[in-house]
């Protein structure tokens, strides 16, 4: 129930250096092109997209009020500016002392229970009851927050006006990211369709499925003692489906995504530069935020020292800082170690249950019809992926609270420092949490198996997993799909249904209250609190998704399509919950997406490396190319014989007792395994052949060439595209020139006025 009068608003507008309009923008708008009609179905009405004219602005000065375009004092400051000013005052308002320490700030009063909440009010109390009430909140609900409007552009200027620049820049970034995903999704879908249309032409899967080839190849058991020998054609369906993702188009798509990431980041910088100009954020520096101390910091730090900028200010002693950082670092390392331990537990689960799945599927008649599709490898991979997803969600839930606690304990000096520290802690944890299992499948599974008679064991007990004869890429695809899709589904359920259920439950107690006794502030109080970290979680969710579609995209070309569909829903869910389910957040300024930009740049560079390694070591592309150009003996069908060439021979009598299967009903004398080793009768038996070293050299050469080519193209594209568009630079210069001219003319006018008044006084005296 706080109101800020004109005097207070003008005083703090000057303190906060808020820019206000001094003249309507006279720079002509962009000329309509003949192709603009194509975008017409996606556009919103002009009054919604641009609720007010564009102005030249200058930092507000209380002494020069007549310089600004003040038509109405009640509407001169936008709602977001007003609530930002009020909150700034409330967070720094002193209310007493305790043991020599000053007590101040609404946050502290809320924490100690004096007040239950502090928030700006929404425009109207209940959108559903006021459909004819034209206001900014209802306009946002009607044009932006409803899913039937999913194909429309976002009213970013109205979002900024109602919620402030910080929330506006998030939705601008999310919308731009979704637009760019469309192109990646189209190319990824084409690559997937190429794999589907060429499935029957894949010589490797044809040989595996051929009864005279794959049906005659006896494979070595996939686990010790309990597992039986098996025929290669039992993995026929799996090998066919693996071609959907493991084909020539995979290489093209990996290179394309490396360039797409660069284009996305560079074009976003240009889009961000336009928004900075349009939203008067050009001269807004993060230093302004860095100079504003957190009230919690001021309250907890009693010692003072001299600051050359802000003079005397509180500070935290170096010994206290060091101790707090040690505790914080140790806690983060402990939780990352916990993730690694949980991943090892999942790996042990995979190794332990594989033999059980193999035995069940071999001996259970009811599973015989689906044995070709649901192999022991796939069954283990799917169940382990679901188990891993559940562990990820549990660890996330626990760590979020720990990360906030240890960041609070560090007592960061400013809000800027607080967010950056929390961001790095949460991102580092979630990076390891979400991606560790994918890194295991992509780069470790099937790479350190050994060979029959000399297998490698984890903890000297569990035999390391082997890849499917068609490769490990299909398992990486399965892992990625389950974790990525599961996270998106769970995230949308949390964001949409949880706030709605809590609000429904909270409204039950108010149903019997008359409308006149249930005021707007009470109705808004019953909504959910967006909180200071509300946007942080939104960014974190999208950045983790960005990692899935870039770091491992070579294994799953449909990942951008899944992300696109999720983001179309995400925009409307986020807008709906902000408009209808949450209290109105306090407006805040931001001229960029902050530290998330650096995180995205780092992931873009890492994605080139991971995709190069996936194509080289996880897919079968390089071994196939080496065979095609160096080892093929049939000119008419160069890939004929590849499967036989990629499988080595092992003499069953050479099995150790701990490895030897209990039964050999077919009286087989040899079995095959996936590797390039000499046969048992060779003088170098069971050692790697020259072909193995040729393939390894080709893989390393491919990684070096692909990385260098993609990096050169990335840096060339980044160099070619300027961060700030030329017309924006021109507009910024024009605005600065006109602003200086207007201020100069104003000062000149005031000086002349004073001189005239002085002459009049002299004449009257004489």
UniProtKB/TrEMBL annotation:
InterPro entries: Anoct_dimer, Anoctamin, Anoctamin_TM. The gene is ANO5. Keywords: Cell membrane, Glycoprotein, Membrane, Transmembrane, Transmembrane helix. The keyword tRNA processing does not apply. It holds the Pfam family Anoctamin. This is Anoctamin. Residues 1-156 form the Anoctamin dimerisation domain. One of its GO terms (molecular function) is protein dimerization activity. PANTHER family: ANOCTAMIN, ANOCTAMIN-5. It is a multi-pass membrane protein. Belongs to the anoctamin family. GO terms for cellular component: plasma membrane. Residues 159-735 form the Anoctamin transmembrane domain. Its main location: membrane. The chain crosses the membrane at residues 170-197, 248-268, 332-357, 377-399, 426-444, 543-564, 599-619, 700-721.
């Amino acid at each position: 129930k706080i109101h800020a009068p004109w005097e207070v608003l003008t005083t703090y507008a000057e303190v906060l250096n808020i820019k206000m309009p001094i003249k309507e923008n006279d720079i002509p708008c962009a000329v309509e092109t003949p192709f603009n009609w194509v975008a017409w179905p996606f556009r919103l009405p002009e009054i919604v997209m641009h609720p007010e004219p564009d102005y030249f602005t200058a930092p507000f000065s209380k002494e020069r009020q007549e310089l600004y375009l003040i038509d109405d004092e009640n509407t001169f400051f936008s709602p977001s500016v007003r609530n930002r000013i009020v909150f700034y005052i409330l967070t720094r308002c002193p209310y007493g002392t305790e043991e020599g320490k000053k007590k101040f700030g609404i946050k502290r009063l809320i924490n100690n229970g004096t007040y239950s909440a502090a928030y700006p009010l929404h425009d109207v109390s209940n959108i559903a009851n006021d459909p004819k009430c034209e206001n900014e909140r209802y306009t946002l609900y009607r044009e932006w927050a409803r899913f039937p409007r999913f194909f429309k552009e976002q009213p970013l200027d109205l979002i900024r006006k109602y919620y402030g620049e910080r929330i506006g820049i998030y939705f601008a970034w999310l919308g731009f990211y979704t637009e760019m995903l469309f192109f990646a999704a189209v190319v990824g879908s084409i690559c997937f369709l190429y794999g589907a249309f060429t499935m029957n032409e894949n010589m490797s899967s044809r040989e595996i499925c051929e009864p005279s080839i794959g049906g005659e190849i006896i494979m070595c058991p996939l686990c010790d003692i309990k597992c039986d020998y098996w025929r290669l054609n039992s993995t026929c369906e799996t090998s066919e489906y693996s071609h959907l993702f493991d084909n020539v188009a995979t290489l093209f798509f990996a290179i394309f995504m490396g360039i797409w990431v660069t284009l996305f980041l560079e074009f976003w910088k240009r889009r961000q530069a336009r928004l900075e100009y349009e939203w008067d954020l050009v001269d807004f520096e993060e230093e302004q935020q860095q100079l504003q101390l957190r009230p919690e910091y001021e309250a907890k730090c009693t010692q003072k020292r001299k600051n050359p900028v802000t003079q005397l200010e509180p500070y935290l002693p170096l010994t206290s800082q060091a101790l707090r950082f040690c505790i914080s670092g140790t806690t983060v390392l402990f939780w990352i170690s916990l993730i690694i331990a949980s991943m090892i537990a999942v790996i042990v689960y995979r190794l332990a249950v594989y033999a059980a799945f193999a035995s069940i599927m071999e001996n259970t008649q009811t599973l015989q019809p689906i044995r070709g599709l649901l192999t022991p490898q796939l069954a283990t991979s799917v169940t382990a992926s679901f188990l891993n997803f559940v562990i990820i969600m549990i660890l996330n839930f626990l760590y979020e609270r720990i990360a906030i606690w240890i960041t609070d304990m560090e007592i960061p000096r400013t809000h800027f420092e607080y967010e950056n520290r929390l961001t790095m802690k949460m991102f580092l944890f979630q990076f390891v949490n979400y991606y560790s299992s994918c890194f295991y499948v992509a780069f470790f599974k099937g790479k350190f198996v050994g060979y029959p008679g000399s297998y490698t064991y984890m903890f000297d007990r569990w035999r390391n997993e082997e890849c499917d004869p068609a490769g490990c890429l299909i398992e990486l695809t399965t892992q990625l799909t389950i974790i990525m899709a599961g996270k998106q589904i769970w995230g949308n359920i949390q964001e949409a249904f949880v706030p709605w259920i809590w609000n429904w439950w909270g409204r039950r107690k108010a149903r019997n209250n008359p409308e006149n006794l249930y005021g707007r502030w009470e109705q808004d109080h019953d909504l959910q609190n967006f909180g200071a970290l509300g946007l942080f979680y939104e960014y974190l969710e999208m950045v983790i998704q960005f990692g899935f579609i870039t770091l491992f995209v070579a294994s799953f070309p449909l990942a951008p399509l899944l992300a696109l569909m999720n983001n179309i829903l995400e925009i409307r869910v986020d807008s709906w919950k902000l408009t209808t389910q949450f209290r109105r957040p306090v407006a805040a300024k931001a001229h960029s997406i902050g530290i998330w930009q650096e995180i995205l740049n780092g992931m873009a560079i890492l994605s080139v490396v991971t995709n190069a390694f996936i194509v080289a070591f996880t897919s079968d592309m390089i071994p196939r190319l080496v065979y095609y150009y160096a080892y093929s003996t049939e000119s008419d069908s160069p890939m004929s014989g590849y499967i036989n060439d990629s499988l080595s021979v092992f003499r069953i009598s050479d099995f150790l007792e701990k490895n030897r299967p209990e039964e050999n009903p077919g009286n087989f004398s040899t079995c095959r395994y996936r590797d390039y080793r000499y046969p048992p009768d060779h003088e170098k038996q069971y050692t790697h052949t020259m072909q193995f070293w040729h393939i390894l050299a080709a893989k390393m050469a491919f990684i070096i060439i692909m990385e260098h080519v993609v990096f050169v193209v990335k840096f060339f594209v980044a160099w070619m595209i300027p961060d700030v568009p030329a017309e924006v630079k021109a507009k910024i210069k024009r605005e600065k020139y006109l602003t200086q001219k207007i201020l100069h003319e104003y000062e000149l006018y005031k000086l002349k006025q004073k001189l005239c008044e002085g002459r009049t006084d002299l004449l009257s005296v004489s």
